[in-house]
């Protein structure tokens, strides 16, 4: 216990955490180890990692093959610059491995260290592309309410979760937001005979026309909105989005930072709709979170614009750690492992089992107003009344009660998120559902 207290004292004295406020750090969990879908704290508590770290630990904790891949590469060549004129084997092999894997027309990759850097790179690439084509006024980016694209200045401006904005205003100009395609709580207008998907797609077209197509460079969207509440769009939404983007010459950026590499039950989130983006941003699951790595893949038409530019109009964008050899080596091994265990297939199978279990909880507990998911990214939404859909205000209480029973996740308001490692078993799914059910029962008993 003394050692634990010493660690906590050092933490509180010297570490500034993401989203930091001392009131939220009174009794922090300090993790020391993990194995599979389980994590262990310094005080000996074991719990199922219901959020796969931060949506990213796809292959689970303690994978020795990933650790060995990092060690072996570090012993050979830990780092070298990938600035134009030099390169390294793992980064080149990873770019080759990823060419055309997600979408056939995306064959070129620029590497970053994470999702925010990836989306920053995407926004700059949009500006570069249109400027090279003689349309420099096409700089506006349309995003969606409750979107999460990172919280650097530009990505925060694209992020549609307003709580991230106030203390960092003013936001970067030329970012705007339209309603998310949320079937349970759609905030836009729906015309007679329209589906939610059609209404949400119409909101995009109306925004483009309102701003002027000659000023709109891109639309960015997560195939499933994660941090904003696990919003699964209607099936008709993204095909309509692709048509609208094509109609008005707007580049479509797919933010697959959470959905990529098997999370949704497909290897990448938009493939189920038979469409392709112009740019895809990725991160998180590419290394299962074992090392920081992200990137963008660009379409062949964007690549041609970059490759055919005169030297004085080159794509003047860079990061020190772009194409980091050790990160790339881990990503190569991670992709090999994901395919070996058919992680996408398991996500589809276990995701169905999870959804079935959550629907069972909804039958037992009227406080659950909505159950939704796609593959192994699912959620329940708590309400005070199913008819009015008034929020219950109990999300964090349920999260804490689940934690006491051995299930770790996050509450997004009254939304309890489920996104465990993709290697989770049927028994572990059932344990997760049981623990959350017990947590809801306990919270309701305290409210009675």
Per CATH, what is the topology of the largest domain? Aspartate Aminotransferase, domain 2
Helix percentage: 25-40%
> How many structural domains in the coordinates?
2
Detail the poorly predicted runs: none
Please count the helical segments: 13
By helix and strand content, what is the structural category?
Answer: alpha/beta
Q: How much of the sequence is in beta strands? A: 15-25%
CATH homologous superfamily title of the largest domain = Type I PLP-dependent aspartate aminotransferase-like (Major domain)
Choose one word for the global shape.
globular
Oligomer: single chain
What does this structure look like?
- With 448 residues, the protein is α/β, with parallel strands linked by helices.
- The protein has 2 domains: 2-59 and 342-447, Alpha-Beta Complex (Aspartate Aminotransferase, domain 1), CATH 3.90.1150; 66-340, Type I PLP-dependent aspartate aminotransferase-like (Major domain) (Aspartate Aminotransferase, domain 2, 3-Layer(aba) Sandwich), CATH 3.40.640.
- Helices cover 38% and strands 17% of the residues.
- The chain is built from 13 helices and 16 strands.
- The strands form 3 sheets. It has a 7-stranded mixed β-sheet with strand order 4-10-9-8-7-5-6, with helices on both faces.
- Helix 6 links the parallel strand 5 (140-144) and strand 6.
- Helix 7 (196-211) packs parallel to helix 8 (237-247) and helix 11 packs parallel to helix 13.
- The radius of gyration is 22 Å and the shape is globular.
- The two termini are 36 Å apart.
